């Protein structure tokens, strides 16, 4: 079609794609690209509350903000490092469980049965809910004295005699992971289900005739066929969980427990509670660099492996 | 196929465990919204001591929920309309034209989707404050600021998904329209868009859900005047009381429109995701 238009109106057709892209480009610049560049600039200045309305007057800080952020001997650096560790644990565990549950459900729903579409719809509800609505419900369920979780564990099952705290103290990470998995696993399920649809059925039938059981069919047919889907899914799940803000923010409010101190929320608090935007920006840039390195390494390793295969 | 006894047991176990995991919070949400306040302030019970619809009445008075509702609706609807329109144009360019900068555009746009929101939050907040100071255009504490921000959030995924949809529509159809005397925009409006309708619907629902559920930027960019539901629901927790029954009632009411929309369009999401993955 480009050929046809080029012959008639060469000028317009050369400009047309750019005109079509212009609104998207302008918005991307305003909301994503320019703020990112400004963020990098901010990380090099002492942008405290005194300079927020008049940012050009903020004094240059050099690498001062970065030195502060990575200096593990002082409170700021130590806090960031601790939060980084918590976030890695949270992200990897949430990713693994969400993927596992998504896969288990996608495989269970692969062959048709009565009521399959009802089950599929039900499983997608936690993902379809606005994030804060689901997290608020969990917040209620995890209350120490009035929540459903302690009611089951203590009153119904009698597992412990005193009621544990779930939203403060050491259990906070387990609570975060549970809530995050609840919201996220349906996305893994939805994606894997879409991937399963593209596997032709006769492959399974042929394997059955050859005497391959369910587990071998999963290992030899399902898993290899889902490889391209899994490559993207695992990366997306990692990036999402690593920068999750909603779950800790809605679950804990502003008083987050150290065991549930996820990095995005940590940076948010470091910036808005102290109004020290310079050091918050430096932490954000470090976070970005980390995610870029992980993403790059991941794409490199998986790319090389597929080329070999 | 695979209708062995072992598989049936496996399926029963998976459906039971995951069914309970999904259903229990939903059950708690619904039943708690029907409880009197004394029920949610004492030990948890699986069933209300007496069923009441009062939380659904009181929730509008405890906090200005109606105002948050109006704010969320205006912000989400306007952001969705513009986001979908802009994504259609961009996806059409990416799918149907070969031009310099095409790869740079698609890579940059997709990669912005990957980066954490907190990275943009502080600078964007400052940019908005300074736009206000220098141009007098108020973007912090107004719906306009939220609309611009949210519509951009859903652009990368929408462009990617629509471009995948457009790619799956044969170009011969466009060419037929061009021969009939339509310009490229006529081909878009009369041929490509009607054929890609499921994709457009899916993208619209995605944009709406993004705006409706956004918390991080809303927590910084809203004041009492433009507060949206995502942060407004926190107002039920006061110094003296947490109105859990009203919180659950409000959470239920604000969830219903998006859940229904998503579930109706789930098939299109799957189709769009496969179209995108095949590329």
Give an overview of the whole structure.
The complex is a heterodimer of chains A (309) and B (279). Chain A contains 14 helices and no strands. Chain A has a single domain (2-308), classed as MetI-like fold, CATH 1.10.3720. In chain A, helix 3 crosses helix 4. Chain A is mainly alpha-helical and 309 residues long. With 279 residues, chain B is mainly alpha-helical. Chain B has a single domain (61-278), classed as MetI-like (MetI-like fold, Orthogonal Bundle). Chain B has 13 helices and no strands. Chain B has helices at residues 5-32, 37-41, 54-62, 65-96, 102-114, 117-135, 143-167, 171-179, 184-195, 197-213, 216-221, 229-232, 244-278. In chain B, helix 4 packs across helix 10, helix 8 packs across helix 9 and helix 10 (197-213) packs antiparallel against helix 13 (244-278). The longest helix of chain B has 35 residues, at 244-278. Chain B is globular. The mean pLDDT of chain B is 88. Chains A and B meet through helix 1, helix 2, helix 4, helix 5 and helix 6 of A and helix 1, helix 4, helix 5, helix 6 and helix 7 of B.
Q: Largest contact between protein chains?
A: A-B, 105 and 102 residues
CATH superfamily of chain A: MetI-like
Write down the overall mean pLDDT of chain A. 87
CATH homologous superfamily identity of chain B: MetI-like
CATH architecture field of chain B: Orthogonal Bundle
Number of helices of chain B: 13
Oligomer: heterodimer
Taking Cα atoms only, what radius of gyration of chain A do you get, to the nearest Å? 25 Å
**What is the CATH first-level class name of chain A?**
Mainly Alpha
Shape assignment of chain A: globular
The amount of helix of chain B comes to over 70%
Low-confidence stretches of chain A: 1-8
SSE pattern of chain B, N- to C-terminal: HHHHHHHHHHHHH
The fold-level CATH name of chain B is MetI-like fold
What composes the largest sheet of chain A?
none
């Amino acid at each position: 079609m480009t050929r046809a238009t080029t012959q008639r109106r060469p000028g317009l057709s050369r400009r047309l794609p750019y005109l079509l892209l212009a609104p998207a480009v302008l918005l991307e610049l305003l909301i994503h690209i320019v703020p990112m560049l400004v963020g990098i600039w901010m990380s090099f200045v002492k942008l405290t509350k005194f300079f927020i309305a008049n940012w050009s007057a903020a004094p240059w800080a050099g690498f001062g903000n970065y030195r502060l952020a990575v200096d593990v001997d002082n409170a700021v650096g130590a806090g960031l490092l601790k939060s980084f560790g918590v976030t890695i644990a949270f992200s990897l565990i949430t990713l693994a469980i969400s993927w596992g549950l998504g896969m288990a459900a996608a495989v269970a729903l692969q062959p048709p049965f009565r009521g399959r579409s009802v089950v599929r719809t039900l499983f997608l509800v936690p993902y379809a809910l606005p994030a804060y609505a689901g997290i608020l419900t969990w917040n209620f369920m995890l209350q120490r004295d009035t929540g459903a979780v302690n009611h089951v564990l203590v009153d119904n099952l009698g597992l412990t005699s005193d009621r544990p705290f779930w939203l403060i103290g050491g259990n906070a990470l387990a609570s975060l992971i549970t809530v995050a998995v609840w919201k996220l696993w349906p996305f893994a399920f939805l994606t894997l289900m879409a991937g399963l649809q593209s596997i032709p059925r006769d492959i399974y039938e042929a394997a059955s005739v050859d005497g391959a059981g369910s587990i071998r069919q999963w290992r030899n047919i399902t898993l290899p066929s889902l490889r391209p889907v899994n490559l993207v899914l695992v990366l997306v799940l990692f990036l999402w969980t690593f920068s999750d803000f909603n779950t800790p923010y809605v679950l804990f409010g502003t008083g987050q427990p150290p065991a549930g101190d996820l990095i995005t929320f940590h940076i948010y608090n470091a910036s808005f509670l102290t109004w020290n935007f310079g050091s918050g920006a430096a932490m954000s840039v470090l976070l970005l660099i980390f995610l870029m390195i992980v993403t790059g390494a991941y794409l490199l390793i998986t790319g090389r492996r597929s080329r070999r295969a | 196929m695979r209708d062995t006894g072992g598989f049936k047991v496996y399926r029963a176990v998976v459906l039971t465990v995951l069914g309970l995991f999904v259903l229990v919070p939903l059950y708690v949400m619904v039943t708690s919204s029907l409880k009197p306040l004394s029920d949610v302030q004492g030990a948890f019970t699986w069933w209300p001591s007496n069923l009441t619809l009062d939380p659904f009445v009181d929730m509008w008075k405890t906090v200005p929920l109606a105002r948050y509702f109006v704010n969320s609706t205006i912000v989400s609807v306007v952001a969705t309309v513009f986001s979908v329109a802009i994504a259609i144009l961009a996806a059409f360019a990416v799918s149907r034209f070969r031009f310099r900068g095409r790869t740079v555009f698609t890579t940059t746009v997709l990669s912005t989707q990957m980066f954490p929101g907190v990275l943009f939050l502080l600078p964007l907040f400052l940019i908005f404050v300074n736009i206000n100071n220098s141009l007098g255009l108020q973007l912090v504490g107004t719906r306009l600021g939220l609309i611009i921000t949210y519509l951009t959030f859903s652009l990368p995924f929408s462009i990617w998904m629509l471009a995948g949809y457009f790619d799956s529509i044969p170009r011969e159809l466009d060419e037929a329209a061009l021969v009939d005397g339509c310009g490229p925009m006529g081909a878009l409006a009369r041929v490509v868009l009607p054929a890609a309708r499921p994709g457009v619907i899916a993208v619209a629902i995605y944009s709406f859900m993004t705006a409706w559920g956004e918390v991080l930027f809303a927590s910084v960019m809203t004041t009492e005047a433009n507060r949206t539901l995502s942060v407004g629901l926190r107002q039920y927790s006061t110094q003296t009381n947490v109105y859990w029954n009203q919180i659950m009632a409000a959470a239920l009411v604000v969830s219903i429109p998006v859940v229904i929309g998503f579930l109706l369009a789930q098939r299109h999401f799957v189709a769009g995701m496969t179209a995108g993955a095949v590329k």
